[in-house]
Amino acid sequence: MSREEAATPKLTSIDLIRSAGLVLVLLLAASAAASVLSGRSPFFLFNRQFWLDELISFNMTAVANPIQQIRLLAEGVDLNPPGYYLLMDLWRLVCPLPDEVTVRLFAFLCTVTGTVGTMIALRRFVPASAATAAAIGAVLAHGSVIIQAFDGRYYAPLFAAAGLFAAVLTSPRRSLATEITSGILAASLILIHYFGLFTAVLMTAAYAIGHRRDLLQVKSRLIASCIGIATVLLHIPIIQGQRSAMGDVPTWMGPARYSDLATFFASSYAPWAVFFAAVAGCVAAMLILVFQRDGQLEHSAPEFSLDLITNDALAAFCVTLSMLALPLIVLDFNYMIQPAYAPRYGANTVIGVSAVVALILARTPKPVHCAAVALCFVIGVSTLATSRTRFHPPLFTMERPIEETIAPIREEISAEVPLVAYRYLGYQSWRYGELNADEVYILMPERKREESPLDAHQWQIFDHLAKKGGTPKPISPSKLARMEHFYYLSDGTDRQVNLKEVQDAPFNVQSVPTDDTGLQVAEYIRKK
C-alpha cells in the first residue's frame, strides 16, 4: 500500500451509509433513553412544545415568501442571517409532519450530517475506526451539540455546514465541482449564522497552512473558499438594518463574568470526551504491553505516524484541529464588539475536540473505540436528561397543559378580554391554547433605563414580532393595571416582574378552577 493510500483510505458509499446509520441510531438511542429516564415517551424530544427562541424562529419560517423573510430580518424581527429560514422553507416542502417534529427532525438530521462530515475529514489522517469513534464520541459528549440536535435553531445546521466544509475542503480530489462546493459551503456557514464566518476563516487558513509546501496546487480551492467567505459583504445591509432597529440593545447578554467564560470554555472543549479517550487509550496501551510481554497477544494496531502523512492528510489534520481556536475568536469578539459567551456559540469546537480524540485513539484497537463511544453515550444521555442552564431551558420540564387549563374560560377570552401571561408562558398560550394574537398579551418587566440587557432586548424583539410577524403584543405591569378586564395565567415564573401596580389597582380578582394542571388562572375585573 502506498503512502497516499495508507494515509487517505478510499471512502466508499457503503462506508458512508454505514457511518451515517451508526450516528443516527446512537443519537436516536440517546434521546430515547433520556426521554424514558425522564418519564416521557421515547420521541418526546422531537414533539415537545417549542420554547421561546424556537417560537421566534418558527414564526419567521411561517412567513411563506423568502423575500419577505429577508425584509423582516433587516427590520429587526430577528438578528441572524436568512440561511436557516431559507433551508427550513425547503425542508417544510418535503416534510409534512407536525411543526414541532418537522423542526426538530431537521436539526437532528443536520447533526447527523455534521458528524459524518467530521468523520470523513478525520479519516484523511487516522484509521477509519478511530475517526468514527472520535466523531461520534465527541458529539455525544459535547453538551451544546447534542442539545442543539433537538433544538429548532441555527446551531445544528451551522454544525452540518462546518462538518461538510471540513470534508470537502480536505478532499484529495482536484475537480471543478469540489472547488465550487467548497466555496458554496463557506458562504453557507455565514448565511446560516454570522459566527459561521469564524469557522470558515479558521478552516481555510488552516488548509493553506497544511498545504504550504504545495500551495499552488490547491490555489483554486483556496480562491473558491475565499470567495465564499467574501459573501459576508452581502450581509452588510441586513446587519445595518438589524443594528438600527435594535438601537442601543444589540444583544441580550450583559458583560461576561468569569463564571460565564468558564462555562463557555468548559462546554466548548468537552473535556469529558478527551478524558475518557485518554483513559481508554492508556488502559489499552498498558494491557497490550502486559499481554505482549507475556506472549499472550500479538497486537496489530493500525499503522499510524504523523511523520508519514501526506500533504492532504496534514491539511485535514490542520483544518479539524483549527476549530480548537474558535472559542478564543469568540472570546475576542466578546470583548471587542459585544458580549457573546453562550455555550452554543462554541458548538463547532467539537470538530477540533474530535481531532484530539482521534489522535488519542489512532493507535488503539477497535474494542477500545467501542468502549470510548459507550462512555460518551452515557454522558450524552445524562446531558439530555439533566441539562439546565440560563442559556437554554431544561428539555423535560417546560411542557405546559395550556389547552386543558384555559378550557373553562376559552369562550370568554377575546380581544376585549385577553389572556395575559409572563414571557414564555404567554407565547405558549398563544401557540398551544389555539388563541389569536390579539387575544393574548406577553407580560414583561417595566421598561426603564436600568433594565437588564435581556429585558431590553426582548422588549425590542417582541415589539418587532408583534408589528411585523403577527404575534401577541408585549405589555408592562403599568399598562396592565389600567385594563378593564383580563385573565391572568401563571406558572410561578413571574416572580421576576413587579406586579405591585396590578395588585394595588381596584380589581375584583377571582380564581378560576384549573383541575390540578400546575397552572393558576385568575380573572381581573376593574371595580366600578
Automatic annotation (TrEMBL):
Keywords: Membrane, Transmembrane, Transmembrane helix
Highest taxon of source: Bacteria
Keyword Transmembrane helix (UniProt): yes
Segments traversing the membrane: 129-148, 154-172, 184-210, 222-240, 261-293, 313-333, 345-362, 368-386
This protein's name: Glycosyltransferase RgtA/B/C/D-like domain-containing protein
